[in-house]
Amino acid sequence: MGLLTIIRKVKRKEKEMRILMVGLDNAGKTTIVKRINGEDTSRISPTLGFNIKTMQFKRYRLNIWDVGGQKTLRSYWRNYYEQTDGLVWVVDSSDTRRLQDCRDELHGLLKEEKLIGASLLIFANKQDLKGSLNPEEIAKVLDLHVMDKDRHWQILGCSAVTGEGLLDGFNWLVSDIGSRIYMLG
Amino acid sequence: MASDNTEEYDKEMLEKKHAERLERLALINKSRLEEASIRKSQAAETSDPRESVDVFLSAFTQRKESVEKELASALEKKNALEQTLIKEHLDSLALELSAMEKLVADASYFLPAYDVRSSQTAVLKLKDELATASAELIPKKKFSFRSKAAKKQPIPTTAADSTTGEIKDEKQNNGGVSSPSTSPVSKEDSMAVQESNNRERIQGKQNSVFVRDSDVLGAELTLSHLKNCRVYLRGRLTTFYIHGLRNCQIFAGPVTGSVFIDDVEGSTLVLASHQIRIHSTKATDFYLRVRSRPIVEYTTNVRFAPYAFSYPGMQEDLVAANLAEETGLWEKVDDFRWLRAVQSPNWTSLPLKERIPVEDGSSVQGLGCDGL
Lengths: 185, 372
Ligand SMILES: Nc1nc2c(ncn2[C@@H]2O[C@H](COP(=O)(O)OP(=O)(O)OP(=O)(O)O)[C@@H](O)[C@H]2O)c(=O)[nH]1
Ligand SMILES: [Mg+2]
Description:
Chain B: Keywords: Acetylation, Chaperone, Coiled coil, Cytoplasm. Chain A has 185 residues and is α/β, with parallel strands linked by helices. Chain A has helices spanning 3-14, 29-36, 99-110, 135-141, 166-181, and strands at 16-22, 50-57, 60-67, 86-92, 119-125, 153-157.
């Protein structure tokens, strides 16, 4: 066995995944990441730029890129597309006024060549609020039925405040990516 | 002999090479194992041992049972207690429920999914029971408004151009083609079908005073397309959306989530919140208590000062919302359109002399704005 093979083996054993969190500002991306990592969520500023979080999830090491969603920042999203294994699109399900905006941005993103192979998890966040639309309604407004047939995707309701649905979502995403790129491991 | 030597030498070399290779492999293997064990211990730190699950569950159950007991006894003593006492009592139960909710949320990354769900369900059930109990024990006050023929002068604002602020005609829908910053109205209309009925809103009004009184549990609220209005929100909110305001004065109790502000002109907003997000706003003064850095985007001529609102029970609400502490962040504003070290020209601190005094929200009750 050559050295290179061994190194490659080691690398594959690490089972790294690169996850990109995007969505409109105020959707709850940073709160979600902090919540699943068990961190304090009571002092989160709107994200100016991006945060990277590395965490162990099941047998995988996730590198999560949480990018700011303000209008001013959206043109920079493309700097983070390279080598993305999983996309998490977070929706503020209670912000009905901006759902069209949200749909347009999402469909724009899905046209990106660099993201073609990425598994897509859509989080219909803020389900703890009474005024939120449920995941089925969100799917309708976001026109998810026109999704490319080859895309691996899933929409799930969740709440970063109560924690509901977050693990289900990441479980799906990580096992979907895992079965695609670590079939042999 | 010589050949033996050479052979010996070759063999030695080979063995040496072999040993070196083994050593390299061992090294790689070692660092791999070390890394694995570091990760394992990291995982052990974050994915908690069974003990903390048990600790959580027993603490949670204890608190749950005590809330249940208190609720039952409040309902029993229904007629024996004074209104204000009952309200205080229910408020404290609401506080406890929020705390329990947080407990579950904080534990959600290590608790088994089943325990998360059943604990959440337990809290939701108690919240429901609490809401039912408070509906029964405390007569509910809803939105009320009165014509602004009534007394109070609008607070002076920076609104040099407030008179030009036109409220957008909600019927004027042209299919949602325009950019969101100039016409949120068309977007909203196109979404009208999807609009949920579960959100309280004050929408499309002029020249009115609104008063909303506290719920035991926080409310979700939208203010949109208001002109020359004063709004008093006494009590907690969980989330707050504001858009399309012209020449308005808004006084709000603490918000546990964010306040999302879009398209406001010539107004004064007095807000306490975990996050303040200001978009496409002009000539407006903000009086803030905030737990993170406020942000502005596509915004000009706005000024900031500390929170300036009070009403009976506000201190408890601030504590409940984790906003009792003055963080000083009201003047640490980030302008997303001005990412340079020098101060953004789009916002300033409000000079002391120009700040409004603390607005006393109890007096609006005196004006008879309450009840309907
Ligand atoms: N009620 C409720 N509020 C939430 C939830 N998730 C996030 N929030 C609140 O929504 C606000 C925005 O959350 P952030 O995590 O900062 O949003 P973001 O998507 O990172 O925003 P940007 O960094 O600007 O792109 C905060 O006030 C959160 O407390 C949720 O599930 N329920
Ligand atoms: Mg963020």
